[in-house]
Amino acid sequence: MTKDYSEEIVMDPRRIEKIIDKRVFQEFLKENSSGESKKSHSFFSTIQQEFIREKVNDLPTIELMIVHLLFWKNLKIEEISKKLGLSVENVTTLKDSALKWF
């Protein structure tokens, strides 16, 4: 008996790659999160924390990386630029784009 694949949903390969990249990066964040970032959560209500978490998770991968390096690792724009191999202007633009939703 053969399986009927006519009802399968086909996803764009670029979308699949983006989902995989985001999951890998989220695992990286979990593995490398420090107690320091947890202290800052006490300043926000549970609703605010959930809102921030959702907005951060919705960011494109590169913007997510920049936000993480900037706020969780306390790196300067110049350090992020070197680490990611991007220009300072590009990192600044991506940071501004990521933060416009907050």
Q: What can you see in these coordinates?
A:
This protein is mostly helical and 102 residues long. The protein has a domain at 61-102. It is built from six helices and no strands. The chain has helices at residues 13-32, 35-40, 46-57, 61-72, 77-84, 88-99. α1 (13-32) packs parallel to α4, α4 packs across α6 and α5 crosses α6. The chain is globular. The termini are far apart. Mean pLDDT is 76; it is low at 36-41.
Secondary structure layout:
Layout: H1 13-32, H2 35-40, H3 46-57, H4 61-72, H5 77-84, H6 88-99
Provide a compact summary of the structure.
69% of the residues lie in helices and 0% in strands.
Spatial extent as radius of gyration: 17 Å
Let me know the largest β-sheet: none
Anisotropy-based shape = globular
Number of H/I helices: 6
- Helix and strand sequence: HHHHHH
The level of helicity is: 55-70%
Overview features:
102 residues; mainly alpha; 69% helix; globular
